[in-house]
Description:
The complex is a heterodimer of chains A (256) and B (644). Helices cover 36% and strands 25% of the residues of chain A. Chain A is α/β, with parallel strands linked by helices and 256 residues long. Chain A has a six-stranded mixed sheet, with helices on both faces. A four-stranded antiparallel sheet of chain A has the order 2-1-4-5, with helices on one face. Chain B has 644 residues and is an alpha+beta fold. Chain B has three domains: 202 residues, no CATH class; 224 residues, no CATH class; 153 residues, no CATH class. In chain B, strands 1, 2, 3, 4, 5, 6, 7, 8, 9, 10, 11 and 12 form a twelve-stranded mixed sheet that branches. In chain B, a hairpin with a 2-residue loop joins β8 and β9. In chain B, α1 crosses α5. The chains are: A alpha/beta (256), B alpha+beta (644). Chains A and B meet through α3 and α4 of A and α1 and α4 of B. Chain B: It is a multi-pass membrane protein. Chain B: One of its GO terms (biological process) is lipoprotein localization to outer membrane. Chain B: This is ABC transporter permease. Chain B: Keywords: Cell membrane, Membrane, Transmembrane, Transmembrane helix. Chain B: InterPro entries: ABC3_permease_C, Lipoprotein-release_system.
Amino acid sequence: MHTHTSPAAATAATPTGNMVELFGATRTYGTGAARIHALRDVAIGFPAGTWTAVMGPSGSGKSTLLHCAAGLDRVTSGQVILAGEDITRAPEVTLTRLRRGTVGFVFQNFNLVASLTAEQNVALPLKLARRRPSRKDVRAALAQVGLEDRLRHRPREMSGGQQQRVAIARAMAARPAVLFADEPTGALDSGSARTVLGLMRDMVESSGQCVVMVTHDPVVAAAADAVVFLRDGRIVDRLVRPSAPQVADRLARLEG
Amino acid sequence: MPGLSLSTLRDRWRLFTGAILTVALGVALVQSSLVVLMSTGEPEIPAGASGREAEHIREGYVGAATLLGMVVPLALFLAVFIVGSTFAFTVAQRRRELALLRMLGGSRPQLVGLLLAEAVLLGLVGSAFGAVLAAPATWAQSSLLVRLGFLPDGFTAVWSFAVLPWSFGFGVAVAVAGVLTAAWRAARTHPLDALRDAPSAARVMTVGRWLVGLSALACAAPLVAAGQSADLLGALLIAMAVSILGAVGLSRLSPLVVPLTGRLVGLVLRTSPLGELAQANLRDGVRRSASTAAPLIVLVALLVGLTGALGSLARATGEDLKRNTAADLVVESSGADAARIAALPGVAVASPQTPLEVSVTAQHREEGRSWRRTHHSGIVAVDPAAYGRTHRPKPRRGSLADLRGRTIAVGPGLAGEGLRVGSAVTARIGDRRVKLRIVALMRETLENNSETFLVPRDLIPPALTADTRTETLVQVAPGTDPRAVADRVRAAGIGEVRTLAAWARGRVDAQQRGNVGILAVLMGMSGLYAAVAVVNAIVIAGAERRAEFAVARVTGLTRSQVVRTALVESAAVAFIGLALGGLVAAAALAGFRDGPGGVRILAVPWGLIGWLVVSTFVITTVANLLTTLAATRPVPVSLVAARE
């Protein structure tokens, strides 16, 4: 089992214990009549060692929240703190450094480099960060997601579930303090989805990593520690350790 | 990073085939040129060759070096251009992958490094192919140079391993130079692009394109205006500059200009539903249509512009020659027979000009510079009085009447070279050395290689010129039919008779042969490059459109309708590229519309234009047909949902 605790996870949280914090975060797109408020004055913290699911109807701003929190997009006003650093106006160099060590990403469409093998894909972020990944570590990460026999396969030779497990192994190998996941099970069958959720739970429990996940599936959201609900760019509700029917019920009322 | 570059290159080699081929062609050309150049470094003058022959051989070698000197930069320009557009295209295509690298912690310098490493690998692979391809290229080039008369028969290029570092250096440098803009662009890729579907995020008209395109056109516009009032040489230089500037400008602005022109073409297309779809695609796939049209613009502008300019110059030279020569017939005969022409009935004036095997050493002085040179070719013996009556331009200085005894006149070929009336030159006639005084200086004409020195015939022993091929300009007496005189010359068995027009044409053609050869080499090369670029753009774009074609078929189009739409689109793009290139060429040639004295000298190369149009449509249609057929082979449903 993976027992190493990322030093970032242990030290970089804010005094409140949050790995990621947003204060008065507002994000607008376009100008004039075409102006869209994707986020309106959102304040939220994501503590270390927890897994939070972000839910809401289409267009509620959940992906924008994830992008802004991860430093992939910038808030129009407000403040974003990631692993103890203010990234609201941070230059590209800072964001690149954070992407190398502090944050990891898992997305619906896997986002593997097509020309690289599973092994090479897992080692890629470490190489980009100029850390020399040992073959043993890379293999261990792939073994953890149950893909020790797929080391030399390229993405197109693997199923969707296998590709997503490679993506998770890639995120795990860099031991990020925060893992951002956008519909990580969206393209998977239910069996593969269960495996992936189990792996994410492991990261939270054993390494104390913080997971922020966007999903529209109540069953997937129920695997998280807490669920926050967005509508029209605002946080409108929050559930702690809910069951899938509770989440579904709340979501149905939001959309109704 | 090199590992990633290597795996990208291996995995997506199809994207890079065009660029590799381009580098290989460029390297082959440069290497063969270098091998030929190294072998021509020391002209080998056969023992026993006369001064004139030696000078001829040396001039040929210089001409060959000049030709190679023109070919190599053009190869460089085209190779960088095509590698650049290929990389720009692949960067646009790999936007998601590059964005993913950014998201995984790749820095901007790392992305630049990745593309540079790819370029170096590509350059090395291309150079290796090119080095092999250079062997047949060297052979072809030497034999062409021999056939064009630049190099002596039996010339063989000597292979040297010393050229290999140059070849590989050239290949890698071209690839790296081509990738620079694309790498800069790739570094701007935003990580979020990895998650976006529509490639709309990338702006096609970058600041660099605006800047280069507009400034090139801004430079070309006043030149076109100046061309209207320039003399012939000015018009020629302006035509060359306008062709290049216009081609660069319009090809850089092609994402803007091509869709605009597409609207005009659209007026015709909109009459059928397929045409309407094709027109919409044309407008929507800006990058795709621009990448196909840009090489065509460059090709047509350069080829038609340069060929037209040189052709017009040749026509002007011919007109100039006819206007300056007061003769009806030109007879070619031996020196001894030429003497009989004046006595024939109906001949008013006969002016024989005999090329001499003599050398003239003269001291040139010009703007404080002074140099000594020995001339071997273009020295002719003339009858001064007859020469004066058959050549309309009067001497600029001095008088032909003084051309008697130990005197000499400077011909049109050396008129601007700093020789003065009254100074002395040393001539070597047979075994004698004689000092001759310059008594006249003729005016410059448009002709290259025209006579350098005129020597009075009485100075030359008749035995020396008796067997030499002599041209005699003949003026017939008033009221006499030149054809009757021509018949009499033939009847007397003196030699070959031509009309003035035929003679002028032949003389200009002989002088143009070198130009035409150079042009043929340049045209073949540019054509090949443009074909590579166009096919490359079509193949890359076609592969990218699989999902789009699938959607069209799910919407209700048959496979053949999809293919036909794509063909209509490609034909429209080809037409636009040709038309815009033609526009540049027309602007370049505008200065030749009115020649001196109102003579029409503009020579539009219709044959070349026909070739370009036919081969463009054939190549684009075939390439598009094959890629579209390949892209529509899978069942559409399997592609509609698929990504990447």
